Amino acid sequence: MSTREVFDSRREAAAFLLPTILISVVFLYYPAVRAVGLSFYNASFGRPNRFVGLENFLRLVTSSDYHSSVLITVLFAVIVLVGVMAFSLFVTFLIHEVDVGQSVYLVSAIWPYALPPAVAGLVFLFLAHPTLGILTHYVELLFGIDVNWFSNGRQAFVVVAVAAIWKQVGYNVIFMIAAMNNIPDSLTETARLDGVGRVNRLLRVYVPLMTPTLFFLVIMNTIYAFFQTFAFVDLMTGGGPSGATNILIYDLYRSAFQFYDFGLASAKSVVLFVVVGALMYVQFRVSDKYTHFGG
């Protein structure tokens, strides 16, 4: 017997939707509209807002530092996206192939995602600390690399990217393992009888059937890379050294809360929103060609 209740009254439906609508308007839509409006003003503490039109956007177009931040962010997002998807798929496949203790391995893979971003950033900061970190010790021991990412921009970029990947793997594994477990056992048995190796079985059998889930994760990981990696940059590098990890979301924060240039920060937020929106559009268009929904 179904427990689903149907409400014929529009008032009842509106009453249930009202809290969600209010929260969305107050914390999402109003701030977004406000940011767009402020992007056309010279706004700062202690001074009245002065309308400047497109001046803030022109400052971004002509700023070499902002151009560098855009390139760093795009490179960072690509590395995080590809790294998260590839490593999560690898870990998921290993867990799927295990017959004994699968739940233990699954929990071990997921637990970093349960950490708040700030806590995850601090944990990885100590794991990869140039002088105290256990990861740094073994990297220097095995590869002979002099690790000092507090002063080396390339190393800092790599460390922050690895930390962001490590944090997001658990989220991806949750969805990937569910998608992989829904693949019929008959397909797996047929592939094994035909002599298909594990790598080919993963790439040629499992991945095509998992494309709806993988596409969803591409979207979520892209958003994560652009917007939700702020804590790692803030706690681990502060955008440095020499701006090597100054991604757009952190650059926006500095403009607003360190230099108190709210007009310029709003312009940066608008640009960031447009860039991510364009990427989402491209990904949706591409997914129509490569996503398999069965049937």
Mean pLDDT: 88
Strand content: under 5%
Low-confidence stretches: none
Total of DSSP H or I helical runs spanning 4+ residues: 13
Helix coverage percent: over 70%
Descriptors:
single chain; 295 residues; mainly alpha; MetI-like fold; 2 strands
Summarize the structure.
By secondary structure, this protein is mainly α. It has one domain: MetI-like (MetI-like fold, Orthogonal Bundle). Helices cover about 75% and strands about 5% of the residues.
Task: Provide a descriptive summary of the structure in words.
This protein has 13 helices and two strands. By secondary structure, the chain is mostly helical. The protein has a single domain (63-290), classed as MetI-like (MetI-like fold). It has a two-stranded antiparallel sheet with strand order 1-2. α3 runs parallel beside α7, α3 packs antiparallel against α10 (211-227) and α10 (211-227) packs antiparallel against α13. The longest helix is centred in the first third of the chain and has 34 residues, at 64-97. The radius of gyration is 23 Å and the shape is globular. It starts with 9 loop residues before the first helix and ends in a 5-residue tail after the last helix. The model has no long low-confidence stretch (mean pLDDT 88).
